[in-house]
Write a structure and sequence with these properties.
The chain is mainly α and 248 residues long. It folds into 2 domains: 121 residues; 124 residues, no CATH class. 67% of the residues lie in helices and 5% in strands. It contains 9 helices and 2 strands; from the N terminus they run ααααααββααα. A two-stranded antiparallel ribbon has the order 1-2. A hairpin with a 2-residue loop joins β1 and β2. GO terms for molecular function: DNA binding; transposase activity. One of its GO terms (biological process) is DNA transposition. It comes from Saccharolobus solfataricus (Sulfolobus solfataricus).
Length: 248
């Protein structure tokens, strides 16, 4: 089921009742915009599903690792370990391992299906794909969550929408950093975080940023800072409609 914006529906009814070349043109434009609205809504819903499934896969894998440790194996989901476990005598833990493996396969199949569906809904020629570190899937997710980037008049608004803006507290004359606000789009924020993990290896700007700040920031804080930098780059590429340029 698709929900239509009531204002769009009213416009459709108003135009449809007035026959003229001018109104025919308006009707055609409205139908196109409605199709775009539907596509964006559908794509955004798919990204929410993808995000949920991705996090579910992580949880299932963590439970599998825990069970393997209980059965005397190292913290590894290697095929060798799993095959040995499955040949063991039935017990409660082994039953859970079998259940989790079935669940993992089901989740991964659905995840691949969603990725294929997103490919069909998102423009394949978007300049976002010129940014090193942003692959097809994460690029589609970012585009679907952002929609029209022109609604963000500057990079700060975009970064805030992603929930990647720095959270600071003022205490007297001191300014204390408290990480990021997390007030924006959680799916979008996680997409940029995942993209940053690749970008620190293949994107010259992010790689340089990573090297410059790894002395002051560690672990997730450093990757989050890289994700924020990547979000700024993405905004600039989409807003100004220019391919990624490492020299800028």
């Amino acid at each position: 089921m698709r929900i239509i914006n009531p204002l769009v529906l009213k416009k459709f009814k108003d135009i449809r009742g007035k026959k003229s070349d001018k109104n025919d043109k308006k009707l055609a434009e409205l139908v196109i915009s409605m199709g775009s609205e539907f596509t964006t809504s559908e794509a955004k819903e798919l990204t929410s599903q993808w995000d949920f499934i991705t996090r579910s896969i992580v949880r299932v894998k963590n439970r599998l690792r825990r069970d393997l440790i209980l059965l005397g194996y190292k913290d590894s989901l290697s095929k060798k370990n799993l095959n040995e476990v499955l040949r063991g005598e039935d017990n409660i833990v082994l039953s859970e391992v079998r259940f989790l493996l079935d669940e993992l396969e089901r989740l991964e199949v659905r995840k691949r299906e969603i990725e294929e569906e997103l490919e069909d809904l998102v423009p394949k020629d978007s300049l976002i794909f010129t940014i090193p570190g942003i692959g097809r899937t994460l690029g589609c997710i970012i585009l679907a969550r952002v929609g029209d980037v022109k609604r963000f008049g500057d990079k700060k608004r975009f970064v805030a929408y992603c929930g990647l803006d720095p959270l600071v507290e003022f205490s007297g004359k001191s300014v204390v950093s408290r990480g990021i606000s997390r007030r924006g789009d959680a799916v979008l924020r996680r997409a940029f975080y995942l993209a940053a993990l690749t970008a620190i290896k293949v994107n010259p700007i992010i790689k340089r940023f990573y090297e410059e700040h790894k002395g002051n920031l560690k672990g997730k804080k450093l990757i989050t800072a890289c994700a924020r930098k990547l979000a700024v780059i993405t905004w600039a590429v989409l807003y100004y409609n220019k391919p990624f340029d490492a020299s800028e």
